[in-house]
Amino acid sequence: MQVILNILKNAVFAIEENKSGLITIKIFSIDDGYTTIEIGNNGRIIPEEEREHIFIPFFTTKESGSGIGLSVSRQIMRLHRGSIKLIHSDEKETLFALKFRNTDEFNN
Asked: How far is it, in rounded angstroms, from Cα 34 to Cα 31?
């Protein structure tokens, strides 16, 4: 939940200047044992030179940012045998994917 909230918070920040800002959430499961949540927004593009640094602790482009949100999110996903990655960031959208291992934990 914390990872999803962090990505959504970043998306809200990215679309603040866009009068027609849009955040999308897609959830799907394929027979590969994982569920994927894709969170996209049509706000500020992440410049190519910043993309390789966004998961590094304390890297931030926000004036009041701490730079720990995405690095902590990555660590949380790893601890849960999942992953987080930036799929793309272009004029159309910035898209992150969260991949979770399916479990039977909630079926009992």
From this structure: 7
CA 14 to CA 50: how far, in whole Å? 14
Q: Extract the runs of DSSP E, i.e. beta strands, from 12-102.
A: 23-30, 34-41, 83-89, 94-101
**Within 10 Å of residue 52's Cβ, how many Cβ atoms?**
10
> Which single residue is written with the structure tokens 């569920």?
35
Residue range 21-30, pLDDT digits in tens = 999 999 998 7
pLDDT in tens, 30-48: 777 889 999 999 999 999 9
Containing H/E element for 68?
none
